[in-house]
Here is the input.
Amino acid sequence: MIKTKQPTQKKDVNGSVLAFEAKLWQAADALRNNMDAAEYKHVVLGLIFIKYISDAFEAKHAELSAQRKKGADPEDPDEYRAANIFWVPKEARWSHLKANAPQPTIGKLVDDAMSAIERDNPSLKGVLPKDYGRPGLDKQRLGQIINLVSDIALGSAADRARDTLGRVYEYFLARFASAEGKSGGQFYTPSHVVRVLVEMLAPYKGRVYDPCCGSGGMFVSSEKFIEAHAGKIGDISIYGQESNYTTWRLAKMNLAIRGIDAQIAHGDTFHNDKHPDLKADFVLANPPFNDGDWRGELLKDDKRWVYGAPPAGNANFAWVQHFLHHLAPGGVAGFVLANGSMSSNQSGEGEIRKKIIEADLVDCMVALPGQLFYSTPIPVCLWFLARDRKNHKFRDRRGETLFIDARKMGTMTDRVHRELTDTDVQKLSGIYHAWRGDKGAGKYKDILGFCKSANLDEIRKHGHVLTPGRYVGAEAVEDDGEPFKEKMKRLTVTLRQQQTEAANLDAAIAANLKELGYGG
Here is the structure.
C-alpha cells in the first residue's frame, strides 16, 4: 500500500494517513446532488473500474510498443490476455473518455465503453453498469467526476495502478456502506472485522470459499494476507456465491480490479448451490444475521442438515451447517454470526448447537463489541470450526475450545461506529495461534476476563452455551492498597453526605412546587 507522509492530515484508528482517498470521496460526494448513495455508488465505482483496467492496459501497451522490433504487437488482444490483463478496445480507453468528458454525449460514450469491454472480455459479461446515458444523470457532473477520477496519482506500472485504484475502490465501498446505512452494510463487511477472520485462519494455500460473499472483501483480504506474509497468490483457489445480482456485480468488479481470479457465481446458496461438490480448506463468511426470509420450509430434509433441521424463521444454523458441509476433512471455517447463535434454545437451535459441540467441531469463539457494522449496531461473535482438531499442522486440540471476550476492544471512530485497531487484530490472532500451537506463536496461557481454554465438560455444565463471558471470568481488579475497613468507613461517610444532599434537594423541589400551586 502507498502511504503519504503529511503529519498534519487526519489519521484513521490504525494510524494510516487518510490522503487522496478521503479527498476524492469528499470531492465526488459534493457532485452527488440529489442522487441516492445506492444509485451513485454504481456511477463512481464503474468509472473507477474502467480507469483501472484502462491504466493497466496502457502500461502493457507502452511495454509492447517498445518491443515492436522484436515482433510484439500492442494491438493484439492475446498479448494482454496472456498477461492476465483485460483487453480494452479504443472506444473504451480512458484517454478517449477524458477527452470527451465536457461533451453532452459523455453518458452514451461511457455506456458504449462498458458494452465494448464486456464484448471483448467474456468474464465481465453482464457485470458492468451501463446506465450513464439516462436522462436523470447530470452529464456536466458526470464529466466532472471523470476529471476527478483522472487525477488519481498513479505510476506507470500496472501493478501500482492496481494497488492505488484498489485502495480507492475499497475506501469508496466502505464509505458507500456507511452512507447507505442498514441496506448498504449488507454488501460490505468492515475490513477490520474481515482481517480478524483472515489473520486467525491464515489461508496460505488451498481452496477458499465464501457462499455469501457480498462485494468480495473476504477474498481481497485473503490476497493481502498472502502478500503480506510473502506467499504466492496462485497458491489459493477462490470460490464464492452471492444471491443479490447487484452485489454480485460489485464483487466481480472488486476482484477484477485486483486481478484476482475467482469463481464467483450468482444465485441463492441454499436453494441453488453453484458449488455442490466443493470441499474447501477455508470457509470465510459473514452471512445475513437472523435471516427469517430464507424459505427454509422448502429444505426440511436437505442433506446438509446433519445436526438437525434449522428453523424456517432463522437461517443462522442453516449457514453453520452449510459451511460444515463444504469443509474438507482438514478444513477450518471462520464466520460472523449474531450473538444469539451462542445461546439460543428457540426452535431447536440449542439442540443443533449441542450436537455440533459434541461432535467436537468448535475450535474457538470470540465475542466482539457492538457498533462494528454499518448494517446493525448489535454486538456479534466469531465462530471458528475445525473438522480435524488432531490436525498434524497444529497441536491436538480435541475436547478443548478457546473462548475470547473481546467486547472491550476497539476504538470509536465517530458517535456510532467502532473499529478494531491493528493492535487488536494482532492480539486476537496471536492468542488463537498460540493456543492451537502454530509454529513460533509462543506459549498460550489463560487471561482472566479475556481468554480461557475450556474443556467439553465445562461447556456441558453451561448447557452447551458458547458465550465467552461464561468462561473467561471477571477481569481482576487492581488492588489500590487501601485497607478494607478504612475504605468502608470512607464510602459510608460519602453515602451519608449524598443522602443528606438528596433530602435537601427533594425539600427544595417540593417547596418550589408548592409556590407554583402544585404542592400537596
Notes: Residues 1-18, 158-162 have pLDDT under 50 and may be disordered.
